[in-house]
User: Fold this.
Amino acid sequence: MLFGEKIPIGLDIGAGFLKVARIKETRGGYELEEFDMIPLPPELIVDGSIIDSLRLSDSIKELLRKSKIKGKEAVISVSGHSSVIIKMISLPEMSEEELEESIKFEAEQYVPFDINDVNIDFQIIGPREEPGQMDVILVAVKKDVINEYVTVVKDAGLTPVIVDVDVFALENMYELNYEISASRNVALVDIGASSIKMNIIKGGIPSFTRDGPVGSNLHSEALQREFHIPYEVAERLKRGETVENISEEEARTVIEAASEEIFNEIGRSLEYFRTSMAKEEVAELILSGGCALIAGFPEMLAERLGIEVKIANPFQNITISKKLDDAYIRDIAPIAAVSVGLAIRRVGDR
Assistant:
């Protein structure tokens, strides 16, 4: 990318928060120029589907006003276990141009929707061990979901130039900030308000992806029920604050019990990966999203799964602009993982 070109913003539309980031390329690497986020009202987005388009569009406008980010071009992403299909498939060796012509036909046997109702993309990974075969990542997203998001973003005054998928944005973030291992499986896991996104990669290639329909709203709801407190107070308890005469230990007990469904969802996905990949093990898990900031949660997850859990730092290899609050950015860093992965995308990337 040439210096001075338009830099699109990365807009992560989550169920709990809207996050926006602008990252520019410098001669020394990358610099975070802008970052901001605002909470979203509960139930505005459910399983990746937008429930109230007008309120969401207004919320995006509010975030743009608050952040004072200039520019109209945006990179956005979608997710949802019922609307996004990602599969590694084996096909006869052919050129990218040939596959472009035939991908719709090839995809029909793998996509459980009418093929005319989805947008399809692919990436050729490379040849398989079997002669004449190649590995291809197939991505299919329901057109109505893409249209929902594009319309909302346009109504907020932005121009979506790329529509990505959350799990690939996580991979972009990881590859920029971490050393890629050719021999170790690393699970990138983002746990937001109402969803789990998982992408297991090895040697820079995704071998398993999964979206799950549970998230940190489970903790908020459990704390509200147990202590008869409003949502805002529950959110403070999740961050380890002592409020309303509720001790950190009392809150942790409730959080641990409420985490059971999340532990089970991740555990099932890892077990499925092991059995489907000839008993390959996951060496470590990089945790992002709001759950990474819940007091004690990363440690509980590591103990339950029996693998090393590290909290994601999407700014590890990114300089933070002096005009930003460095301490704040470092504190909320795990929540910014997807927006960073989107903000480093450029038109023309594959």
User: Anything to note?
Assistant: The first helix runs from residue 53 to 67. The longest strand covers residues 29-39. Residues 92 and 133 are 4 Å apart (CA to CA). The mean pLDDT is 93.
